[in-house]
Sequence to fold (105 residues):
Amino acid sequence: MGWATPYIAKLKNGETVSFRPRGHSMKGKIESGRLCTVEPIANFSSLEKGDIVLCKVNGNEYLHLIKAIQGKRFQIGNNLHIQFFTMRRKIFRCDVKKSDARQRY
Fold:
């Protein structure tokens, strides 16, 4: 069970969640301790490179950026590194407009 497991369970049930992530991998986009609101994704075609998503990859949970989109696969990474590919059923959108984090770039 990871740090985001309870949030992902709620998202899978159609609920919107808010939390304050800790860490510096998204510095400049989401600062450590800032409130983030994450919602289920109704339309995956609306996702774009640069969107912030909560995702589960190989059993680990990340709040990262979409670096590339290849059909139903999304390449995920933080501000410095491209890290993984994951399928759309394992990602949820972080709406920074509803949180006190910085706007998406």
User: Anything to note?
Assistant: DSSP finds one helix and seven strands in the chain.
